C-alpha cells in the first residue's frame, strides 16, 4: 500500500500551490537553460539532506554538475555513448539496488541528444524509467530544455510523468507554470506563479499573464533532433571537402555505428551524398544494421572499381531500411521493457526468451510508424518484397550470424489491407527471431549476450519476374571468394566458389531435403564435385522455391512443372532434357500426363556465358578491398537475348579457419590400424587434432525409433554437447547433422553440437542416409565460425577406409556423463579414446584418423 507522505520541493510557497510532492512522483521541469533547472534542484536537495533522506545524483550530461560532491549524496556517472539499452539497463539496475523511497536528481535529459540524436529514444527512456521509479515510491527530478523536443515526445512524457512544470525567467524573475499535477487540484494550481525566495505568488490577472506569455519564445515546428542534424547536413554539400567529410562521419556514426573495420571501409567509399541518400530511405531513426551496410558497401566498391562491362551487369536496388530505434520503441510502447531487462541477465537469458518471443510476435506499432509502413508498401505496389534481419552485430568481422535471424518473403498480393497485415507481421517475425534458441545460444557462446543487439530491418524488392502464376529469379546463390573446402587438389582455392540454384535462394543457403545445389569452382566452372556421372541427376536440384502469386505464399514446385512455362530466357541455360526419363515415360504411355523431364545442371550457363567470369571478378574485387575473404548472396536474371543482370543482395566477411601449415601425414602401413581415412570430403583446412572422446549414433537402433524417438536422440545430443564442453570430441552419426527431417539424419539444432571439435556424417545408402557437405550454406558458416572440422565418410567408395567395429568393443560412458539416460544406451555411445588423432592435408586432400 502506497504511503501518503507529503514531500517538500524546498520552496514553501510552491508547496502550497501543488499541495507538495507525493512518494512516487516523477517531476519534469521544462526550462530555458540548465541554470534554470539547477535553481529548482538546489532547494529540493537542501531540504532532502536536512531530512536525512537517501539522495542519488545520476550524472551523464556534458553540462556542469548540478550537484556538488557531498558525503551524503551518492553519485553515479553513466556513459550515454554506449546507447539506449545499456544506459536504460544501468539506470534500472541502480534503481533496483537503491530500493524504495530513494530521491533522485537526473542530469538534463536534453543532453542525451548529443549522444543518441533521437527524441524518440529520450521518450523511450522516460517511459521505461518513470513507472519503475513510481513503483519504488521515489521522488525523481528531470530537466528538459524547452522548444528542443518534438511535440510527440513531450506528449509521451506528459502522459507518463506525475508532474510537468514550466519554468520561465523573465526580467530576472522566476515563474513556475504547472502543466500537469497528478491527483491534485485547486482553483489556482495551473496559473503561473512568481517565485520570490520561499514565496509563490499566483498570476491570475489577465494583463499580467498576457504580458508574461507574450514575452516567451515559442517554436511551432519542432523537428526531431535526428532530422534536424540530417537536414543541416544537406547544406554542407556546398562546403569544402574537409567539412563534408567531418559531417559524413558524424552521420555514419548515427546510421552505421561506432569506429570499426566496417566503419573505416564505409568511410573510404561513401561520400556525404551517399550517406544522405541512405538516410532518405530510412524509416524511423537509428542504425541500419550490418546486413544493410554490407550490401550497400559491396555495391559501392563495385561501382568505384568495377569495369564498364561489370557495371552493366549489376542490377540496381531500391531498398528501405527500418531503423534500429523502432525495435526498442516497439518493446517500450508495448510495455515489455522490464521483461527485456530480465531476459538480458545471465540467469534470465534463456528462461525469459520464449515469453519475450511470444510477445514480440503479437505487439502493436504506433500510428506514426504504421503510416510510414503504409508509404513503403505504396511505393512497392504489388511487387514481392522480402523483410530481412539486419542486426547491429550481423554480417560484421568475426560475427556473421548466418541464418540465426529470420527473413520473411511478402508475396504482397491482395487488397492494401491484406498486404499491410502481411507486411507488419513479417516485421514482428523478424523481431521475434532475436529470441530464437540458436540466436541467443550463438550470442552467449561468442560472449555477446551483454552487447546491444538492436534489430534493424532491410526491406528489399524481391529480384525476379512473373512466370505464369509464380515469381522467382532465374538463378540465386551464395559465393565465397576463398574456397578452402575443396575436393580436388587441382582446385585453385583463391578463385572462389559458388553454390547456385534455380529459383529463390532459400535452397542455396539451407540444407535441403533430398535436393542439391550446384557447386561451382570458379577456376574451372565445369568441374563437378565427387559424384559419378550416373549420379549427376540424383545429386541435382529437383524442387524449386518460388513465390505463388495466386496463393500469396512462398512454396516449392517440382522442377519439371516449372520448366514447362515461359522463362523469358532460354531454358537450356539452366537445364538439359532428361532423355532417358523421357523415353521411359514414353514407353509407359505417360507422355501426356507428365511435363517433359529436365536435369538442372546449369551446363550452358557455366560454359557459354560470361556469368562465371563476372562472379569471379566480383568476389575478387570485394575480397581485395575488404582485405579479407568475403561471402555474398546474389540473384541473376536473364532476358530473351540471354543478357543478364546480377543483383548483389548481401556481402559479409567470410569466417574461415584458413589453410594453416601443412601437416606431416602418418604413413598407413596397416589399414587395420586406422579408424577411418578418406580422400576429400572434408572441410576445415590442415589439422592435426587430438580426439579424447567419440560420441556415435548406432544407425540401426536410430532407425528403429519412431519420429518422436529420433527427436529425443537429438535433444540428448544437446545435453552431451554441454557436459563435454572443453573436451576434444568427435561426433559421428548417419546422414546429415542438423537436418529438419529425421529420416535423413539427426535433427539437432546447431547449438546442440556447437562444442564438438569434429562432426562426421556417415553414408548408409541402404537406409537412405547420405551426407551433404553443403558448401556455402548457413550450416557451413556455423561450422567454420565455430572452428568445427567436418568429415563425410562414404564407406565402400574407392580410397575410403572405415572400421566402425572399432567402437563395438569399447565401454559406453553415456551413463557416467548423463545418469538416467538408460533409454538411450542402445543408440548413443560415448567412448574414451587412447591417443587418437585426426590428420588432414588440404593440398593432397588426404585425411586419416588413427
TrEMBL record:
<dbReference type="InterPro" id="IPR002192">
    <property type="entry name" value="PPDK_AMP/ATP-bd"/>
</dbReference>
<feature type="domain" description="Pyruvate phosphate dikinase AMP/ATP-binding">
    <location>
        <begin position="288"/>
        <end position="666"/>
    </location>
</feature>
<dbReference type="InterPro" id="IPR013815">
    <property type="entry name" value="ATP_grasp_subdomain_1"/>
</dbReference>
<dbReference type="Pfam" id="PF01326">
    <property type="entry name" value="PPDK_N"/>
</dbReference>
<protein>
    <recommendedName>
        <fullName>Pyruvate phosphate dikinase AMP/ATP-binding domain-containing protein</fullName>
    </recommendedName>
</protein>
